[in-house]
Specification:
The chain is mainly β and about 120 residues long. The chain has no helices and 11 strands. Strands 2, 4, 5, 6, 9, 10 and 11 form a 7-stranded mixed sheet that branches. A 4-stranded antiparallel sheet has the order 1-3-8-7, with no helix packed on it.
């Protein structure tokens, strides 16, 4: 059973930093790309960052240079280091992956972790 469990959210002042974690289980973690999304109140869920099995990364323009996605295959965990946080980064952050189950690709989400940037 695939599970994704996010942690590390919280309240931080503008300009501050947070590191989110997503612990994965139930699948061969090292064989799959992983993504972070976020959803602000009243808005759609948007892709924030992605990392491939080889460690190649991609970022939304709004977070380039401030956020860093990484993975630790030994711990079945991905991270999102968020620096220079802005109020507009306030959202629920979700971990996401697509896993091949039998002959079918299935999409999985974590429960989300709230990030609030406010003074």
């Amino acid at each position: 059973q695939v599970q994704l469990v996010e942690s590390g959210g919280g309240l931080v002042q503008p300009g501050g930093s947070l590191r989110l974690s997503c612990a994965a289980s139930g699948f061969a973690f090292s064989r799959y790309g992983m993504k972070w999304y976020r959803q602000a109140p009243g808005k759609e869920r948007d892709l924030v960052a992605a990392i491939t099995t080889a460690g190649n990364t991609n970022y939304a323009d709004s977070v380039k240079g401030r956020f860093t996605i990484s993975r630790d295959n030994a711990k079945n965990t991905i991270y999102l280091q968020m620096n220079s946080l802005k109020p507009e980064d306030t959202a629920v952050y979700y971990c996401n992956t697509n896993v091949l189950v039998g002959l079918r690709w299935s999409n999985y989400w974590g429960q989300g972790t709230q990030v609030t940037v406010s003074s």
